[in-house]
Design brief:
This protein is of the alpha/beta class. The chain has one domain: 3-Layer(aba) Sandwich (Rossmann fold), CATH 3.40.50.720. The protein is about 45% helix and about 15% strand. It contains 8 helices and 7 strands. It has a 7-stranded parallel beta sheet, with helices on both faces. Strand 2, helix 2 and strand 3 form a beta-alpha-beta unit. The protein is globular and about 60 Å long. About 45% of the residues are buried.
């Protein structure tokens, strides 16, 4: 009898992470979640009976404890979903250096820490997968999200490099890039502005967390490296590849008097 497959999900107490927890639970996977939201994790554990571990993705010791505890409970790690992330919306000068540092530490260093911590467990079995959640803001430099966008470019680049490197370990790497998704991150702003990321969604498509979880499911089972959530994101990817000049002119015009 085949052993039950397992996935560890960061930021699993809410948003896209929680939707992924529910999707993989329906499919019969063993699930572990790591989050700083202990109350949220407790609610998920009560509902679904999943493994939980306190995890600040900036903390390498917590990473080792979380994954070590999960593998001891589940017997193996088939997939790490590096999902935890934050955003601070505002013009560059409105976002404090400390807020920018926090985005870099969580969105980039947190993903790197996860890759380091998970690799020994992933390469111990055949066909394991590392899935990093970036953003369509990693496809083009996104005004109002300059540092956030930079962090998501970094996750894309990391995923591309590790996809090649980890081949020798039998570990696949995928990068999931959502367009706007209805999560608490849309209400994120910076201390220097009253605006939030939700303001940027005016007139834009906003997708559900369930749609994002479906794409994550595809990324876990597919062989491609890049996966886009939402038709709007696919259109942006096309434009960034084949009409970069036109896209740049439109962005500059839109923000010339912002």
């Amino acid at each position: 009898m085949a052993q039950q497959r397992s996935i560890f999900i960061t930021g699993g107490a809410s948003g896209i992470g929680l939707a992924a927890v529910r999707r993989f639970h329906r499919e019969g996977w063993r699930i572990g979640i790591g989050d700083i939201d202990r109350a949220g994790m407790a609610r998920v554990a009560d509902e679904l009976g999943v493994f939980t571990a306190p995890l600040d993705v900036r903390d390498r010791a917590q990473w080792a404890d979380a994954l070590g505890g999960f593998v001891a409970a589940a017997g193996r790690l088939d997939v790490l979903l590096n999902n935890a992330g934050i955003a601070r919306f505002g013009m560059f000068e409105e976002v404090s250096p400390e807020e920018s540092d926090l985005q870099v530490d969580i969105n980039v260093k947190g993903v790197i820490n996860g890759a380091y911590a998970a690799l020994p467990h992933l390469k111990a079995i055949g066909g394991a997968r590392l899935v990093n959640v970036a953003s369509c803001a990693g496809l083009f430099g996104s005004p109002g999200l300059a540092v956030y966008s930079a962090t998501k470019f970094a996750v894309r680049g990391l995923s591309e490099a590790l996809d090649a490197e980890f081949t020798r370990h039998g570990v696949g790497v995928a990068c999931v890039m959502p367009w706007f998704v209805e999560t608490p991150i849309l209400d994120s702003g910076s201390a220097g502005t009253n605006r939030t990321l939700r303001d940027a969604t005016s007139g834009q498509e906003v997708y559900t967390v369930e749609e994002a979880a479906d794409v994550i499911w595809q990324a876990v089972h597919g062989r491609e490296r890049d996966y886009i959530v939402g038709k709007a994101g696919k259109k942006v990817r096309f434009a960034s590849r084949f009409m970069p000049g036109q896209m740049r002119r439109r962005l500059k015009a839109a923000f010339a008097t912002a």
